[in-house]
C-alpha cells in the first residue's frame, strides 16, 4: 500500500498484479511528499529498535486497514485505486515466482498442477508467501460491509493504459512503468497450464473475484 498525503492518493497493492512496477513508477511523487521522510525514519527506527510502530501501512494491506486507521475525512479525500488480474493467470505467475525466488516453499511440487492442488488444499499449513497469492483480490477492495470502497480498479491486462488513467485522477503526468519481471521459462498463454479439473479448482476458489471483476478462463 502506498499513501501520499500531498498528492492525495492511496494505492492498494495486490500481489502479482503489476503493483511493484506501479510503486516504482510513483516513487518520485512519494519522495516529494513532506511526510515521506518522517514516515521513513520512524519506520527504520521501528525495525532497528525491535519495537514495531504503526507508522506505515503494510505493503500488501487491504483497503479496509486504511479506512479503519485513517481519519474519515482523510480517507474520503484520497483517490483510492488498485490493480487486479485474471485469477488463472495470477496463479501461473505466482508458481513461477515461487519456483524462481523461493523454491523451498514449493513443498516438493515442481509441476504446476500438483503445486496448485497442494496450495489450494485447506489442510495445508499456513505459509505467508503461498497464502498471500490465494487471497481473494476482492477482499482488498471492500469495507467491512462488503462494499467496494476504491475509486478505480485497473487491470493488469491493460496496465499501461489504466495506470495513465489513475495518474490523470491523481493529477500527474504518467511516469514510465519499469519493465515487469517475466519468467523466461513460462508459456505465454496461461491456459496451457490447465486441464479441466485444475481450471475448475481455480474457478471455485476465486468465484467471488470472478463474479465481481468479470474475469473468465477464456478472455474475450
Describe the protein.
This protein is of the alpha/beta class and 220 residues long. The protein has one domain. Helices cover 44% and strands 8% of the residues. The protein is built from eleven helices and four strands. A four-stranded mixed beta sheet has the order 1-2-3-4, covered by helices on one side. A hairpin with a 4-residue loop joins strand 1 and strand 2. The radius of gyration is 18 Å and the shape is globular. The two termini are 31 Å apart.
How far apart lie the N and C ends? 31 Å
- The neighbouring-strand order within the major sheet is 1-2-3-4
Overall pLDDT score = 89
- Following the backbone from N to C, one meets helices and strands in this order, namely EEHHHHHEHHHEHHH
Question: What percent of residues adopt helix (DSSP H or I)?
Answer: 40-55%
Q: pLDDT under 50 segments (min length 5)? A: none
- The whole-angstrom Rg is 18 Å
Report the structural category.
Answer: alpha/beta
Question: What's the count of strands?
Answer: 4
Strand content: 5-15%
Coarse shape = globular
Question: What oligomeric state do the depicted chains represent?
Answer: single chain
Sheet with the most strands, sense and barrel status: 4 strands, mixed
Number of helices: 11
Q: Give the total of domains.
A: 1
What is the topology?
Layout: E1 2-4, E2 9-12, H1 19-25, H2 27-32, H3 36-49, H4 63-69, H5 72-77, E3 79-84, H6 87-101, H7 112-119, H8 128-131, E4 152-155, H9 159-170, H10 196-205, H11 207-213
Parallel strand pairs: 2-3, 3-4
Antiparallel strand pairs: 1-2
